[in-house]
Each structure stands twice: as structure tokens, then as C-alpha cells.
Specification:
single chain; 6 helices
């Protein structure tokens, strides 16, 4: 019984460690366009931004932990309330410069969101909430 418990714990630890240690740069991301519910539709400018700065990790092909927070490949499967909630979180994370992560920023300096892009996303999010 002890052997089974120990092996189970080791297996779970290995799986969790592998999921946490996935390097965002090693993921190619999804290049497919995002379709959405009509009430929280991504304007072209937001869609282009998401494709460039978010999809490497936040897509079906992306980082396990990142796509658990928001998966833009599944955006159209979210109901409108969930889309608005995820969009609000997106604005908050971008405003704090918590997203994209530092490692990704180092490897993709030309794709780091500008303040104008962060403002654009937050303006869109604020319009959704009205």
C-alpha cells in the first residue's frame, strides 16, 4: 500500500512539474482567428493584438497553465458573462505588466504590448461592461 501511494505521489509531482515548467517561447501558439459571441465580440484591433501578444500561451496549442486562465481558441465557447470577466482580467493583467510574462517579453521584445495597446484593450473592456 505504501508503494502505491509513493508511486502515485511521484507521478502527480512529475506531471505538475512538467506543466509548470513549460517554456512559453517553445509553444508555437494557434494562428487561427478567434470567433466570439456577438455580445463580447473582439474588434479587429483587439483580435490582432491577442494574436500577436497572447496566443502563444493562451490557446489550444499553448501553455497548460496559461490556457487554464483564458483560452482564446475557446473564446467562442464562453458565454458573454465569462467573456466579459476574462476580458476584465486581461485588462488588469496588462495594466500591471504581469502579462505577457517576463520570460516571454525577453524573447519577444518587438511584441511587448505598448501603453497605447493596453489602453485600447482596457477601453474595449470598459465599453463591454456598460
Amino acid at each position: 500500500m505504501k508503494r502505491v501511494t509513493i508511486l502515485s505521489l511521484i507521478t502527480v509531482s512529475v506531471i505538475l512539474t512538467a506543466g509548470i515548467s513549460i517554456d512559453p517561447q517553445s509553444v508555437t501558439g494557434s494562428k487561427s482567428s478567434i470567433s466570439v459571441n456577438t455580445e463580447a465580440t473582439l474588434p479587429d484591433s483587439i483580435n490582432k493584438f491577442v494574436q500577436r501578444a497572447c496566443m502563444d500561451c493562451h490557446s489550444d496549442d499553448g501553455n497548460f497553465l496559461a490556457k487554464g486562465k483564458v483560452n482564446f481558441s475557446s473564446w467562442d465557447k464562453y458565454d458573454s458573462a465569462k467573456q466579459i470577466s476574462k476580458a476584465n482580467s486581461m485588462c488588469k493583467e496588462l495594466t500591471k505588466s504581469a502579462m505577457p510574462p517576463k520570460k516571454w517579453r525577453k524573447r519577444n521584445p518587438d511584441d511587448i504590448p505598448t501603453q497605447a495597446e493596453v489602453d485600447m484593450v482596457c477601453k474595449w473592456v470598459n465599453a463591454l461592461q456598460k
